[in-house]
Design goal:
The protein is mostly beta strands. It has a domain at 300-402: Leucine-rich repeat, LRR (right-handed beta-alpha superhelix) (Alpha-Beta Horseshoe), CATH 3.80.10.10. The protein has two helices and 30 strands. The strands form six sheets. Strands 5-6-8-10-12-14-17-20-22-24-26-28 form a twelve-stranded mixed sheet. Strands 7-9-11-13-15 form a five-stranded parallel sheet, with no helix packed on it. Helix 1 (48-57) packs antiparallel against helix 2. The relative contact order is 0.05. Mean pLDDT is 82; it is low at 1-62, 69-79 and 208-217. It holds the Pfam family LRR_1. This is Leucine Rich Repeat protein.
């Protein structure tokens, strides 16, 4: 880089050279000519702010009329410094994750940053890194935290991407989308997840089975521990997908006013079902195949969900009468719990397609009102319960109803 700075009626040629050593060390050499004297500075790993301060000290005689020009020059140099920092972070990322063997690595280390496969740049900064199903192998390097303008980060379907989530990833406070699904990440989800307040989508769901080998063994490479209370800091979050992991607990109350889809199925979650506060936008709720126990909260009947899956838990008690207000629900799955009592309240669901009630302790007679005011109803599965009544068709648009 080469800049010219003016001081009064004098011109100061400024030469700035960047050297990269071992893909990690950033060395600046500055040569400044002032009053017929040459001064050279060598500053290893200098920060952008330190560089700006040095440049400012070299032109103390600059007039107010020329201040705008100076500030623009300093701003441009600072931009180039941060762009170089992004480049170095990605070089480290490439080396740490065996970039030479990626399925696609066009442009990496050879072309300008904007031409690297999977990388998007705006105003000289990396804003998106998307390398889905690209044979990444290894552990995420700490240097990922230096991509301070990153908004979208997607490394899903790289099953050899392992290790824990580096704490530095929580420094990326401009992230809108973080997708690390179908990887082999282990460890826990830090409380610092609450720092990512710009997130719209958080995807870390995976397979419950070992995807690396042709077996049906349980997947050992999962996230464990608690889903942090700080998840409630993510007020912009629309999609929360943490299913098929090994989480054992979660907040008692979820307060995410923009949440549209919540997938926490097939984990190891224990305790009572969580309450959902300010959940007017919630459309899909998957809590199946956990270890939840106790009754279904009455508040669930006031959700505006289209899909509600609570199957394969240890839920007890009866279906809340509030379920009569589930006017939007299309898919309702309560099967394989220990629920009891009547199912008649479910005849009041006007838009339901499928109702799964199998393997519970429900009693009573199968109501003839099923399907009467439910024009879309296709199936009601009551197998494995104590419901009385014969298998029947409800109307021409409905499949068989099984005892």
């Amino acid at each position: 880089m080469k800049k010219v700075m003016e001081s009064g009626n004098k011109i100061l040629p400024l030469h700035c050279q960047v050297e990269i050593k071992n893909n990690r060390e950033l060395t600046w050499k500055l040569t400044i000519k002032k009053n017929k004297q040459m001064k050279m500075f060598k500053l290893c790993c200098i920060s952008a702010l330190s560089m700006v301060a040095l440049l400012a000290s070299c032109g103390s005689d600059i007039t107010s009329e020329e201040q705008g020009t100076k500030e623009k020059q300093v701003s441009n140099m600072k931009s180039r410094v941060t762009e170089s920092s992004d480049s170095l972070a990605l070089v480290d990322f490439y080396n740490a994750l065996d970039g030479g063997h990626w399925y696609k690595n066009e442009g990496w280390l050879e072309k300008p940053l904007k031409d690297w496969y999977g990388v998007k740049v705006a105003n000289g900064r990396v804003v998106s890194l998307c390398l889905v199903h690209n044979n990444l192998k290894g552990k995420l390097p700490e240097s990922i935290g230096k991509l301070s303008r990153l908004q979208r980060f997607n490394l899903s379907y790289n099953t050899d991407l392992g290790g824990s989530i580096p704490d530095e990833i929580y420094n990326l406070t401009e992230l809108k989308s973080l997708k690390l699904s179908f990887t082999s990440l282990t460890g826990s989800l830090s409380d610092r997840i609450g720092c990512l307040t710009s997130l719209d989508s958080l995807d870390m769901w995976t397979s419950p089975w070992d995807m690396k080998h042709v077996t049906h063994a349980q997947n050992p490479d999962v996230l464990t521990g608690a889903i942090p209370q700080t998840i409630n800091n993510l007020k912009k979050l629309s999609f929360l997908r943490l299913g098929r992991q090994g989480f054992t607990s979660m907040p008692e109350v979820i307060d995410l006013p923009n949440l549209v889809e919540c997938d926490l199925a097939v984990c190891n979650l224990k305790g009572r079902l969580p309450q959902f506060k300010n959940a007017e936008k919630l459309k899909v709720l998957y809590l199946s195949k956990n270890k939840f126990e106790g009754g279904i909260p009455d508040s669930y009947g006031h959700l505006k969900v289209k899909e509600l899956y609570l199957s394969n838990n240890n839920l007890t008690g009866s279906i809340p009468e509030s379920f009569a207000h589930l006017s939007a629900v299309q898919q309702l799955s309560l099967e394989n719990n220990r629920l009891s009592g009547s199912i008649d309240v479910l005849t009041k669901l006007p838009n339901v397609y499928c109702i799964y009630l199998a393997k519970n302790d429900f009693t009573g007679v199968f109501s003839p009102l099923f399907g009467v005011k439910q024009p879309h109803l296709m199936v009601v599965d009551c197998t494995g319960t104590q419901i009385m009544g014969q298998t029947k068709y409800m109307n021409s648009s409905i499949s068989k109803v099984k005892k």
